[in-house]
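Q: I have 182 residues here and want to know how they pack in 3D. Can you give me a structure?
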Amino acid sequence: MDFVIRRLGEDTKDDFLRFFDKDAFSDNPEWDGCYCQFYLDEREGLEWNGTAEGNRANAERRILEGSMKGLLAYHEGKPVGWCHVNLKREVAVYRNGAGDKEAIILCYVIAPQMRRKGLATLLLDEAVAMMKEAGAASIEAYPMKNPKVMEHSYHGFLEMYLAKGFKVTGEDEYTHKVVLEL
């Protein structure tokens, strides 16, 4: 399958919004209103009550400001995948203690009909290149240890990261911490 990867920006904002409006969570309506804002909002603990309308507006504002970064994957001109990647200092939940040269991959969202076609790996390759270009010295991610359902794989798969040279540097009850020195 042929995919085109483009960076999130003012010129791809409408594609991003359309993807999250219609396709991103077509098989998981419970997460339908996220617009990839979960990790960007200041809050204590993991409590989060973002509304779909508020998240959409925040996503649009952050895209136009340039503070929200990521990659859109297209197939036949239509957005079919997303990877949220940024410097940690731009991500509220990970900002404390983050150095200026640390990056993080927050999530992948792949349209249901495009899963298991290597798209997350293509997005990972471009995310690494994008963060190198941004001056990051390392990039980290937190794949789930034993996802019970597909939805819990939104951080990517451990095997995918290991195949690209990431090293496991820590873990907790639910996730592995993987890091690639750039």
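Q: Anything worth noting?
A: The first helix runs from residue 13 to 23. Strands lie at 4-7, 70-75, 78-87, 102-110, 138-141, 167-171, 176-181.
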